[in-house]
Structures are given as C-alpha cells and as structure tokens.
Amino acid sequence: MATYFNEEFETLPRPALEALQLTRLRNALERVYATVPFYRASFDMAGIRPGDVKSLEDLQRLPFTTKQDMRDSYPYGLFAAPLEEIVRIHASSGTTGKPTVVGYTHKDIEVWSELMARSFVAAGAHRGDIIHNAYGYGLFTGGLGAHYGAERLGASVIPISGGNTRRQIMIMQDFGSTVLTCTPSYSLFMAEEARAEGVDIRDLKLRVGIFGAEPWSEAMRGEIEDKLNLDAIDIYGLSEIMGPGVAIECIEAKHGLHIWEDHFIPEIINPETGELLPVGETGELVITTITKQGIPLIRYRTRDVTSLTYEPCVCGRSHARITRMSGRSDDMIIVRGVNVFPSQIESVLVGIEGVEPHYLLIVDRHDNLDTLEVQVEVDERLFSDEVKVLQSLARRIEKEIKDMLGVTCKAKLVEPRTIQRSEGKAQRVIDKRKL
Amino acid sequence: MKVEQISIFIENKSGRLAEVTRVLGDAGVNIRALSLADTSDFGILRLIVNDCEAANRVLREQGFTVSKTEVVAVEVPDQPGGLTRILQVLDTEAINVEYMYAFVEQCGGNAVIIFRFDDSDRAIRALLTKGFTILDGQRLYTM
Does the CB of B10 have a partner CB in chain A at under 8 Å? Predict the structure, then answer.
C-alpha cells in the first residue's frame, strides 16, 4: 500500500484533476496577460486572448516560451509579481551568456516545498529519515529545493551540499544518513571514493537515493543500486519551471516519473515543427505552470526529450508519467547525420560487463568527416596482460554502439580515474568541430 | 614451477612509463625482466620483479590498473638453435605461445626466456619430459 504526502491531490480522479487544471490555467493566463508585457505581446501576435481558452485542448493554440525569451527578459522581465513579493531568486548556470533568472513568492516556495515533500514520499522517504542532501546549495535550485521539501516532510536534513567527498562519506557513516540526494554520477563517484578510503558504502544505512539534474539510464540505475545498496529513484525538475520535484518516480513502480499535474500541464511536441504529438510518442517536453506567481511560464520548451503516459499506476497516483529523459534536445550531438544522446552510449557501456559508466565522447571532424571517439576506463575487471583481449573489448564496444545507434565510433581505452569526475553535472561530450 | 608476473595498463601518453618505473624505484622494487606490448592507443607493460607484492601494492596506490599472471621461465642453452628446440617441443604438443621475452640475467651460462602459454601446465610437463630446466619464482627473483 502506497503512502502519500497529500493523498487527496495525488490521487485526484482524472476528471476532477483536469477540471482543476483548466480553472488554474485560465487564471494563470489572465494574470500573465495583465502583468507581463511579453505575454501580452506574444498572445496578441498569435491573435488569442486568455478568455479564448475554454478547454485544455485550447492550450496548444498559445505560443511557446523559450529559454531565449528568458534571456531576452534578463533579469526580471518575465516576473509576474512585483519584487516586493519575491522572497527568493535562483538562476540556472548559463553555459553561454547570461543565466536565466527565476523569482519565487512566499506561496511559490510553499508549493515547491510541498511538491518536493510529495516527491520524497513517492520515493519511499518518510519522517524520521536522515536526508543527506548533496545537491549544491546556492543559485542552483537543487540544494535548497530538496532542503525545503525535506523539512516540509519533517525528515532530518543534512545540508551538506556538493564537494569534499571524503567528508561526505564520513558524515554519512557517522550521522547514519538513510536517504541520499545528489546527481547519479556523483553517487557512483562517492562509492568509488568510499572504496578508496576502505569504506564499503553498501554497509551504510542508505536506503533510498533520489538522483536527478542530469539524464541517466536504466542500466545505470542497476549499477547504482548494486554499488550503493539502495533504491535509486529518478527525480526531474528544472529551475525555469520550479526546481527539483516537478516529477518523480514512485518506488512502487520505478517506471516513469509522475508529473504533479495539479501545478503543471505537460505536453510533448515535435521539436522541429512545434506540433503536438499523440500521447505516447517521444518528443520535447513542454510545461505550463498553472499556480506559479513569481514567474509563471506558458508552454515553456524544456528541451528535455521524453514521452507521456496517462496509464494508471500501481501506486494509485492519478498524475501522468513522463518516461526517463532520453537526453536534452540541445545535448544531442549529430554525428554524420545520426542523432546521438550521451545517455544512449551510456546504456550500451553499462551493458558490457566490467565497463564503468565513466566515459567521454569526443566529436571531431577530419577531412569533412565527423569522428566520434568513446573513451572508456579500463579497470582491473577488464584488464588483461594480453593485447588481443583488450583490443577485442574495444572492438566489442564499437560494434555494440554501431548496432544500437547506427553510428561508427572508435573506442579508446584509458587508464582508470583519468576521465574527469564531476561533483555536479558530469561533462560527457567534448565537441571539437569547428562548424 | 610458475613465476608471477605483473602487468600494467599504460595509456599512450608521454611520461606514463617513467611514472611506473619511478613508483617502483621509490618503493625499492627491482625490475628483473620486462616487455612492453604496444598498440596505437595503449601499451601493456609486463614485469618480473624481485618483490611482486610490493610492486602490486604501490602501483595500485598510484591508481594504475595492475594484474598478476603466472608465466613460465625456461632455461635455454645459449647457443645457436637453443630456442628452436624448445619451440619444436611446443609445436609437437600443439601448445600456443601468447608472448615471450628474455630475462636480463643468465643462469649458469644459459639464457632464460619468460613464456606465457595458452596451457602452462601442459607446457611445463612437455618441457620437463624433454629435459629442459624450468626455473621457479624464488630462484628467479633472486638471480
């Protein structure tokens, strides 16, 4: 029997949930049209008024909002509430140019805390848990988002933040942490560091790991669960929409992430044409926030690639599920015309016995031809004193990637621990092409 | 009758080989024989040392990937055709040589060759039957 943080809303029957969405959507549209010049202009240009939206299907008539729109309105241009009501400001790391800035009212923080608390419960956490929160605290939403949710739940939160891995391991050991929150790649890094310190992380009290902020694969879940001896749960969020806790897997199914539909409306579109795709098809996730006050976003293009299902879930939650992210439409690399997501390479690698999911993709161009090099670390399980064994391993990696992705690559075996470990989001791709 | 060899994975980057020998030198480990198999991307350094345990430990501590393999050290008459006689025995028995390399020191006027066979036990029996001398680890490490 599943437990809930807010049973009434988490299990609301679909007709009631959709009626609630429509009411909230219409209110949100009225508010942004009245308070944000950007939306007034873009709705006017599309020839639609908030009052024209009479059903959830009408949502697709509205124009998209993009990350570029947020940059153009830097820093506060898209805020729908006056700064006097904004109690918190976060920003996403801008890899190019300025960061995108988001503001939260008191009410927004309350909603976020509740959704994060719901997410913790869905993941199998409860009051009495000791939550080791290794997401970074700061402008990044991960640390504080998980923190407020943990407090709202009534668990004990250790605000350890990222970095200083040895100390993290000591604290997990001494404080008896039962829930770990960090990026999936950092959890494996911790396991490795612990081993180097002579600690078997499997023996700690960790029971649940809630991992997000970067795409990961089902195969990597197996690896993490095995190396850390816990249930590894996928969480999704992005600062533009709120932060962590937009969607979460339930521990009962571990099959798709419930998106909290009483606050967000998800759609899946074709990233090329912008058309709405039929339910179940894979495309770019678009989210409309329907309760946010600080910076409501209408049809925000997340660039995350996934699909939606409304099938009932064994946990009893009525909220739709998105499938595990298969990548970001802008993380995607195109190699000789083939779309490649780093996460696809990762699932091939973890499927090969002994291969660690630490890898680096190097894309380059020689004589007008794209080249893809996959660097893989050789640890003791893979190593052999015979050249032919190592060479056949490299050939096998190349063949499996070719079979799965249809792209030819060169596998390069490198010494262990030479691929840079990240304590935040792992860098998986170096694109050297000068286009 | 077998001898312990350690193998080290080495990426094709300048300075990696020097790093291995430095680590071993600092630990007081003496290299008795070595061979380097190289490909365009990586190399495998195979070593016979006077203290296999210590070499294994210090290299791992420095983050190298190390494995231990059992190889066979055979005394070869230091004269023309000496090696051929050994290889003929192996050929007759259909035993494969995966790789081989020479030992630095001589043993009573004879050369010593390190072999890695696909079937070491059978190779040892065949060579002993034909009167060849196989050196054990203790003898070799202290030669």
Answer: yes
Average pLDDT over chain A, rounded to whole?
A: 91
Two tokens, residue A316? 């009893």
Number of domains in chain A: 2
Q: Which of A374, A385, A393 to mutate to test the interface with B (most CBs of B within 10 A)?
A: A385
> What integer is the mean pLDDT of B41-62?
92
At B35 the three-state DSSP class reads strand
> pTM of the prediction?
0.70
Asked if B85 is an interface residue toward chain A (Cβ–Cβ < 8 A), one would say no
A422 — pLDDT class (breaks 50, 70, 90)? low
User: pLDDT for B28-37, tens place per residue?
Assistant: 999 989 999 9
Task: Name the DSSP letter for residue B107.
Answer: B
Q: Which of A380, A385, A412 sits opposite B46 (nearest CB)?
A: A385
For A116, the token pair is 């994060």
Q: What does the block give as tokens for A155?
A: 């668990």
Residue B77: what pLDDT?
84
Q: Are residues A375 and A424 in the same domain?
A: yes
pLDDT tens track for A274-291? 999 999 988 899 999 999
Check: CB of residue A258 under 8 Å from CB of residue A250: yes
Same domain (yes/no): A92, A213: yes
Token pair for A328: 């970001």
Q: Do B114 and B137 reside in the same domain of the chain?
A: yes
Residues B57 and B100 in one domain: no
DSSP secondary structure letters along A231-273: EEEEEEEETTTTEEEEEEE-TTT-SSEEE-TTTEEEEEE-TTT
One-letter identity of residue A420: Q
The pLDDT value recorded for residue A243 is: 95
Kindly state whether residues A260 and A345 are assigned to the same domain: no
pLDDT digits (tens, 9 = 90+) for A359-417: 899 999 887 778 899 999 888 888 888 898 999 999 999 999 988 888 889 999 998 87
Q: What is the CATH number of the domain that holds B89?
A: 3.30.70.260
ipTM greater than cut 0.90: no
Q: What beta strand segments (E) does A113-263 contain?
A: 130-133, 156-158, 179-182, 208-211, 231-238, 243-249, 257-259
Alpha-carbon torsion A46, A51, A55, A56, what sign?
positive
d(CA A234, CA A322): 11
Supply the range of the domain harboring residue A243.
1-329
CB-based contact B7 A390, cutoff 8 Å: no
Q: Are residues A237 and A347 in the same domain?
A: no
Confidence band for A216, pLDDT divided at 50, 70 and 90: confident
* Residue A108 · residue A294 · CB < 8 Å: yes
The C-alpha of A359 sits at a distance from chain B's nearest C-alpha, in angstroms, of: 15
A407 and A294: one domain?
Answer: no
Give CA–CA dist A354/A357, Å, rounded. 9
Same domain, A266 and A382: no
Instruction: Report the CATH number at residue A414.
Output: 3.30.300.30
